Amino acid sequence: MSYILAQDREGNTHNIKAEAGFSLMEILKEANLDIEAVCGGQCVCSTCHIYVEKKWLEQLTDISEEEQVMVEDTGHYEANSRLACQIIWRDDLAGLTLTLAPEF
Ligand code: FES
């Protein structure tokens, strides 16, 4: 068990417990953050768009072409954009900081 620091769209920071093997999207939803995840993690809706603090980006598995296209299409793309459903939590990511992207 480890933790994530997640900032919501109102600017509040939440310290969320995360269990290895679950996707970030599942973890954020379970913690009642406002993540729609319409497609259920299939990488086709972008409603789980987040910004990962830059120093953590290189610790994550590389972004796939499919995911890259989806985040660029959101209208709120930043260099540190990721889809939370495409990141599987590992305990060595403890302390990762992210921000929910604006809704569509
Ligand atoms: S839940 Fe749909 S793209 Fe992540």
Q: Key features?
A:
single chain, 104 residues, Ubiquitin-like (UB roll), five-stranded mixed β-sheet, 3 helices, 5 strands, 18% helix, binds FE2/S2 (inorganic) cluster
Outline:
The chain is α+β, with helices and mostly antiparallel strands and 104 residues long. Helix content is 18%, strand content 22%.
Biggest sheet strand order reads 2-1-5-3-4
Give the bound compounds.
Answer: FE2/S2 (inorganic) cluster
Low-confidence stretches: none
Number of spatially distinct domains: 1
- Compute the separation of the termini in Å: 32 Å
Note the total helix count: 3
Topology pattern, helix = H, strand = E: EEHEHHEE
CATH superfamily: Beta-grasp domain
Give the helix level as a range of percent: 10-25%
CATH architecture field:
Roll
What is the total tally of β strands?
Answer: 5
Indicate the proportion of strand residues: 15-25%
Category from helices, strands and their pairing = alpha+beta
CATH C-level class: Alpha Beta
Stated plainly, the CATH topology is called: Ubiquitin-like (UB roll)
Average pLDDT taken over every residue: 97
Rg over alpha carbons: 12 Å
Q: Describe the global form.
A: globular
Question: Biggest sheet: strands, sense, closure?
Answer: 5 strands, mixed
